[in-house]
């Protein structure tokens, strides 16, 4: 059973639904591996943003390393403010730092996101 299906099944049993992805965003998990550091894993995913789509302020239980594959994406990183990156640019988001992403253009945008995260913790925590 895939990790996402397992999480959804546990949430359904507990009467909680996993947080829905914002419209116009799609994450495709490419690979997930245990690291040599006990209790840690890596997850690599492609994240696609339709024109105008955004992902609200959130954090991760580890670092996120971003490479923009195509388009332009505006990020707002707590403590740094908002800035725009384009295809070929990179970004590092430290563990626990809240950030958001938005495709402010009229063309699709994509990023390759590599997460180095603590195992067993939710990948995304939305800012309340």
TrEMBL record:
InterPro entries: Cupin_2, RmlC-like_jellyroll, RmlC_Cupin_sf
Domain Cupin type-2: 46-112
Pfam families, A to Z: Cupin_2
Protein name: Cupin domain-containing protein
Species name: Sphingomonas daechungensis
